[in-house]
Amino acid sequence: MRKLGIQLDEYGFVKNDPFQPWATNFPGVFAQGTLIEPIDIPETASRVSAASARVIELLCDVRGSLIRPKEYPQERKIYAGDARIGIFVCHCGKNIGGLVNITRVLEYIKTLPHVV
After folding, report:
1. Residue 21, CA distances (Å) to 7, 30, 36, 67, 74 in order
2. pTM attached to this predicted model
3. Strand pairing partners for 20?
4. Which segments of 26-101 does DSSP mark as H helices, in order?
5. pLDDT per position in the chain (116 positions), as tens?
6. Which of 30, 34, 37, 35 is nearest to 56 (CA)?
7. Where in the chain are the domains?
């Protein structure tokens, strides 16, 4: 904390403003819990929630600014014949194989046009 220049009190806790208990003297650095005083977990959770709300407030203006549209390569034809559909059947042990007659499903698939 000292390397960042964050002010500490005489006991080594982070100094803070009672009206903004999440804030430190270093902009963008927040402190809570046992960094500022001896405190129990429920009170820490409550105060951390307030600090989180402040972070969200600071970030709301730049929300979505790092999103870039996805770029995909140009599609190209890799098969000169007619389009075909691939069907993959998993017997998956008892989950599916115990309820579905996989052999009959495979026989039926063979009768479908354009299916491999």
Report:
1. 14, 9, 8, 32, 53
2. 0.49
3. 17
4. 41-59, 93-97
5. 778 889 999 999 999 888 888 889 988 888 988 989 999 999 899 889 988 998 999 899 998 899 999 999 998 877 777 778 888 888 777 777 778 888 899 999 999 988 87
6. 30
7. 1-62, 82-116
Query: Which residues does 87 contact at the CB level (< 8 Å), separation at least 6?
Result: 109, 115, 116
User: How far is it, in rounded angstroms, from Cα 37 to Cα 47?
Assistant: 12
Q: In Å, how far are 11, 28, 30, 56, 71 from 59, measured between CA atoms?
A: 32, 11, 14, 5, 26
User: Tokens 């819990």 appear where?
Assistant: 33
Reading the block at residue 18, the tokens are 């009672």
